[in-house]
UniProtKB/TrEMBL annotation:
Domain of life the protein comes from: Bacteria
Family annotation (Pfam families): SoxG (PF04268)
Organism of origin: Paracoccus aerius
Record-given protein name: Sarcosine oxidase subunit gamma
Length: 176
């Protein structure tokens, strides 16, 4: 995918494609979480919505036994996890091709996101991430800064989400 920047009306929100990354869906019983975390080289967070990072790899807790692992493309965090399988049985599935990530930033980003998302986006702490919906599309929303977000979107929903972002951007700018 080519990197694109879409500067909408006076940069109220900037939308950029993020370079492809390795995405792994991890399921492991809580009793084996620490062992597998050591194998992956990071502490797997225990509270839903919290993140951990080490050596360019991020882990997001999506449920009591479910994590999303994001790593730079070309790395293989699955190799040490395979080696730990006997001590920590788990499911680790590559879902990299399923999703596209957009970076959303700018002074109107909270308004734009809140327009199609039932969560209180402003209350999300910086450094957190959540699985939620944007209109009818299931997304993962990462808050990287006060007005800096990443949104992981299933590939088939990207045109729909981008069209909504553009429409809402126009509406927000009309209200300013």
């Amino acid at each position: 995918m080519t990197s694109q920047k879409h500067d909408f009306a006076a940069a109220a929100i900037r939308i950029e494609d993020v370079a492809p990354t390795l995405r792994l869906s991890l399921r492991v019983k809580p009793a084996h979480r620490e062992t597998l975390g050591r194998a992956l080289g990071l502490d797997l967070p225990t509270r839903v919505g919290t993140r951990a990072a080490a050596n360019g790899t991020e882990a997001l807790c999506l449920g009591p036994d479910e994590w999303l692992i994001v790593a730079p493309e070309g790395t293989d965090p699955a190799a040490p996890a395979r080696a730990a399988y006997a001590q920590a049985p788990h499911s680790l599935v590559d879902i990299s091709d399923r999703e596209i990530t957009l970076r959303l930033s700018g002074p109107a980003v909270l308004d734009v996101l809140a327009s199609c998302c039932p969560r209180n986006i402003a209350a999300m702490p910086v450094g957190s991430a959540v699985r939620t919906v944007f209109d009818s599309a299931t997304v993962i929303l990462w808050r990287d800064g006060p007005t800096d977000f990443r949104m992981d979107i299933w590939r088939s929903f990207v045109p729909h989400v981008c069209a909504l972002l553009a429409q809402v951007q126009d509406e927000v700018m009309a209200d300013l």
